[in-house]
Amino acid sequence: MTLLNVASLLGKSVGDAEKICANFGYHIRITKQDGLAFVVTCDLRTNRVNVSVSNGFIDSASIG
Questions:
Q1: Spatial contact of 62 and 11, defined as CB atoms under 8 Å apart
Q2: Reported pTM
Q3: How far apart are the C-alpha atoms of 34 and 8, rounded to whole Å?
Q4: Exposed, middle or buried: residue 30 (CB in 10 Å: 0-12, 13-18, 19+)?
């Protein structure tokens, strides 16, 4: 798996970010959307990108 620079996802739409992540073998999990935090598991997955979304666009992203 090639490493993904998660900073490159900032400002992208969720759909665009999903396509980018898929090209690198990663999956997206939305952890927060428009100020509403979702309940998520605490397991660490190195092929998952946790994202926060505001108005349909990624405003933070991290591996895990």
A1: no
A2: 0.90
A3: 20
A4: middle
Tens digits of per-residue pLDDT, 9-51? 999 999 999 999 999 999 999 999 999 999 999 999 999 999 9
The total number of residues shown for the chain amounts to 64
Q: Which two tokens stand for residue 32?
A: 């927060």
User: Is 32 within 8 Å of 14 (Cβ atoms)?
Assistant: no
Q: 6-63 in CATH: which number? A: 3.30.10.10
Give CA angle at 62 (59, 64), nearest 5°.
Answer: 145
Q: CB-hemisphere CA count at 13 Å for 49?
A: 28
Per-residue pLDDT tens for 8-18? 999 999 999 99
Cα(13)–Cα(56) distance, rounded to whole angstroms?
6
